[in-house]
Each structure stands twice: as C-alpha cells, then as structure tokens.
Amino acid sequence: MTKIGFIGTGVMGSSMAYRLLKAGHELHVYTRTKAKAAGLLGHGAIWKETPQAIAQNVDVVITMIGYPSDVETIYLEEGGLLENLAAGKLAIDMTTSSPTLAARIAEEAGEKGVLALDAPVSGGDIGAANGALSIMVGGTQEAFEKARPLFEVMGKTIQLQGGPGAGQHTKMVNQIAIASNMIGVTEALFYAENAGLDPNTVLASIQSGAAGSWSLSNLTPRVIKDDLEPGFFIKHFIKDMRIALDEAKRMELKLPGLELAEQMYQKLADNGLSEKGTQALIHYYR
Predict the structure, then answer these.
(1) With the C-alpha atoms ordered 207, 94, 165, 162, is the resulting torsion angle positive or negative?
(2) Residue 274 in contact with residue 284, Cβ under 8 Å?
(3) How far apart are CA 237 and CA 245, in angstroms?
C-alpha cells in the first residue's frame, strides 16, 4: 500500500483515482469542488482541505488538473506542492501541460530532492475507467521505476519517453494526430449521412479496414446516437492544441492541419459547446 494524494477528480481523474483506491492504496484527495470527489469519498478516500495538506501526508502526489497555469500555481507558487513535499517523495503531473513547464518543475523538484515526472495520458473516459490508458512519461529512470506500479493500475501502454518534458512532448504528438483524424472521421460521417447511407452499417464496414482508428470506433458511435457528452472536453482539447502550436512555433515548425483543427474547435467553443466532447465537431458541419 502506498499513501497517494490525488488532486483533480474530473471526468478522467475520478476514474484513475478510483482504480488506485480499489487496488488497495490509501488515497487522499483534493479538488476545488468537493462534490466532485463525493464518489471517491464514499468508497473510502480521505478528504484534505488543501493541496498543501495532501503533500504533507502522502508518499506520492498525482495531479490531473486543467491548464498549465493551474499546474504552475499548484507546484511552483509560494505554499505549493514542491514547498511541502519532503525529499524522496514523488510528484507525478498527469495533466496535459507544457513541456517547458514540466522541465522547470522537474528542475526545481530536483533541487529539493523530490522526484518528479510528467506523465500525460491518452484514452479518454473509457480508458480511464478500464485501466487501459496510454501513459507517456518524462523524467528519470529512478522516478519512473518508483511510479511504475501505480501506472500499471491506471494504464496498459506505459513508456518512458525521455527526460523531463518528454512525456508532454509525446502527448503533443498524440494530440496533433488526433486533431486531423477527428476532422477526417467527422467529414466521413457527414458525407455518409448526406449520401443517404445508414451510418451504423457504414461504420461496421470501415472501422476494421485502413480507415480504422480509435476515434472512429469509440467516438463515431456516440455521434450517431447524438451523444455529445464529454469523454474529453472541447475546451481542454483547444488548450492542448494551443500548447502544441506554441511548442511548434518555438521549434519553427508549421503545422497547418493542427491550425485548422484548432480554428474549427474554437468556433464550436464560441457557440457554447466548450464543455461537450470532441465528437461535437459534427456540429461544425451540420
């Protein structure tokens, strides 16, 4: 049993935390809205009133929060996690955040003797619930080995990608691939609908062929049922795409597919769909 602090219990974080609790670990939780942790508390998790209280009472802190600004605040500002974690403790940020910020956190953690990993994930709400996430890790081998048993509870594909920030860079690669894929998947469905085809039989024909993808198999059925509830919020996808665009600019790269996807999703957000799932891209066309 490990004493784990989990900060952030949203759509994915709550399922990830529940799996750690179910695996027999002592789980301490904090989230800005306590009601979002009610399910975990009902299963035996321990509530803490502040992130500082989490850090002072556990061996490992895992964060799964919203934006890079949140990550910077909770780790680096006065009274933050790094000030309250003792040497030898482990901090794992599983938020999709800035690679540059991840490297900064790891550097400051190292100065205090704290082990730090950036470990963003892919797999959405389904992967989180089933313990089937892909976990992309940046940091030292020592920190990775210490975290591996916890990662194995939450995910199936677990890979150390390199030093600090490498996990976040890998997640940017993932999001870039998804961005253009979502355009293709959505346009294909829109075409099928307008050609008078049955989307379900079309999906049965194409998902196991060359057009197959995770988004096609897992998100298109939701679109067909007009289920736009989030496995992953549009507002968070926009955040991820903008991180990738910022990093690409820093590397002097031009990514027109990603730029187009960001513009399309921003239009949806401007029309009140920011808290729907990424499959709501169908409404850009409809």
Answers:
(1) negative
(2) no
(3) 12
Q: Which CATH class is domain 170-284?
A: mainly alpha
What is the enclosing helix (H) or strand (E) of 27? strand 26-30
Query: What token pair was written down for 223?
Result: 């679109």
**DSSP-H helix ranges across 68-165:** 68-76, 81-84, 99-111, 124-130, 141-154
- For 169-222, strand residue ranges (E) read none
User: How many angstroms separate the CA atoms of 122 and 107, rounded?
Assistant: 25
Name 134's bridge partners. 122, 157
Under DSSP, is residue 212 helix (H, G, I), strand (E, B) or coil? coil
Regarding the domain with residue range 3-163, which homologous superfamily does it belong to in the CATH classification?
A: NAD(P)-binding Rossmann-like Domain (3.40.50.720)
How many angstroms separate the Cα of 41 from the Cα of each of 6, 26, 99? 12, 12, 32
Whether 171 sits among the annotated catalytic residues: the reply is yes
pLDDT in tens, the chain (286 residues): 899 999 999 889 999 999 999 999 999 999 999 999 999 999 999 999 999 999 999 999 999 998 999 999 999 999 999 999 999 999 999 999 999 999 999 999 999 999 999 999 999 888 999 999 999 999 999 999 999 999 999 999 999 999 999 999 999 999 999 999 999 999 999 999 999 999 999 999 999 999 999 999 999 999 999 999 998 899 999 999 999 999 999 999 999 999 999 999 999 999 999 999 999 999 999 9
Domains of the chain: which residue ranges?
Answer: 3-163, 170-284
* pTM for the structure as a whole: 0.93
- Ramachandran assignment for 242, one of left (phi > 0), alpha (psi -120 to 50 degrees), beta (any other): alpha
Task: Check 48, 171, 235, 239 and give the catalytic one.
Answer: 171
Cα distance between residue 76 and residue 120, in whole Å? 19
230 contacts 275 by C-beta, under 8 angstroms: yes
